[in-house]
Design a protein that fits this description.
Blueprint: H1 3-25, H2 31-60, H3 73-77, E1 105-109, E2 112-114
Antiparallel strand pairs: 1-2
Helix pairs in contact: 1-2
Length: 117
Amino acid sequence: MNDKEILARISGLIETEHELRGQLAAGALTSDEEHQRLRSAEEALDQCWDLLRQRRAKREFGANPDDAAVRPAAEVEGYRQLPVPRQRCHFSQCRCFPENPGRACLGRVSGTRGAGS
């Protein structure tokens, strides 16, 4: 599969997910049927995203993206998701680590550069 094919598969799986949720809301599916089919679609979606990330990483580092392979669902589903930073650092107002008020700030604080929060 190339990147375009993977992205098309991802779009199809997202549509399937929406259809399943719509069918459940309309009473056309039981909760158990929806849960089983939705879980299958979610696993396939995670595998597609993983394959796409592998291909992009290989390309970025000069390797052949066609060497990327679909990983088992159990492996892909076991990945830990890293938390998304609340705010990105732009240095003018450094608040990257609000839970650590003692961290040096690169912006101006009370007319000086450096220490302070």
